[in-house]
Amino acid sequence: MSVAGERHITTSSDGSTTIWVPGLDEHYHSIHGARTESLHVFIDAGLKATAAQSVRILEVGLGTALNAQLTFETAKELGVEVQYHAIEKFPITPEEATDLGEAGMQEALPFLLATPNIPLQLGDSSFTLFVEDLRTFTAEQGTYDLIYFDAFAPSAQPELWSDAVFENMYKLLAKGGILTTYCAKGVVKRSMKAAGFEVEALPGPPRKREMTRAWKR
């Protein structure tokens, strides 16, 4: 989830592209490998863990749309249908999208340039962008099978990692659903557990000891 203000395109250590936000001193993805982190945290620990042929996904923080891009690429390989909803309060501008495309992220452009609230059909799958605040986002209970929780770190945006937010995430997940995130802070795990999640620590991506996966049993 972005913030309004200055943003700079940069390259992470695996050669993939990310964005740095000076106002928060935060990157959209790990500087130790944006693509590597996304595959590890959201694809391997999330999408591939669902074992379903049709998956309803909510992403918290579209960012550069790297997670969306990799999800649709992997789903196609696996023969999985995806209905993908992404929340982003401050989406990438068309000018920034052009720059990202020139930096090697052409495959992400359809998601970055999607019209808010209008589903983008991709065969039997679809992608929808919601430009709104996570704290006021609502949907029917049990709407999603998988949540990618990719907000900026709690140190930068603590309001997005609150008990109330995780209570809402728990309600939005279907029984057996998964929430996966790069964050492994104890206070975040406690909020997840208080909401009803079964929480597990998994090995993290490069330079990060742990990540978190939470289940709605």
Describe this structure in words.
The model has no long low-confidence stretch (mean pLDDT 93). The longest helix has 13 residues, at 66-78. An eight-stranded mixed beta sheet has the order 6-7-5-4-8-9-11-10. It is 26% helix and 28% strand. It has 217 residues and is an alpha/beta fold. A hairpin with a 2-residue loop joins strand 6 and strand 7 (125-130). The chain contains six helices and eleven strands. It has a single domain (8-215), classed as 3-Layer(aba) Sandwich (Rossmann fold). Helix 1 crosses helix 2 and helix 5 packs across helix 6. The radius of gyration is 16 Å and the shape is globular.
Overall spatial form: globular
Mean pLDDT: 93
**What series of H and E elements makes up the topology?**
EEEHEHEHHEEEHEHEE
Major pleated sheet: 8 strands, mixed
Strand residue content: 25-35%
- CATH fold annotation: Rossmann fold
Number of strands: 11
**Helical stretch count?**
6
CA distance, first residue to last residue: 27 Å
Radius of gyration, in Å, reads 16 Å
- Per CATH, the architecture is 3-Layer(aba) Sandwich
Strand order of the largest sheet: 6-7-5-4-8-9-11-10
Structural class: alpha/beta
Q: What percent of the residues sit in helical stretches (DSSP H or I)?
A: 25-40%
CATH-level-4 superfamily name = Vaccinia Virus protein VP39
In CATH's first tier, which class applies? Alpha Beta
- Give the tally of structural domains: 1
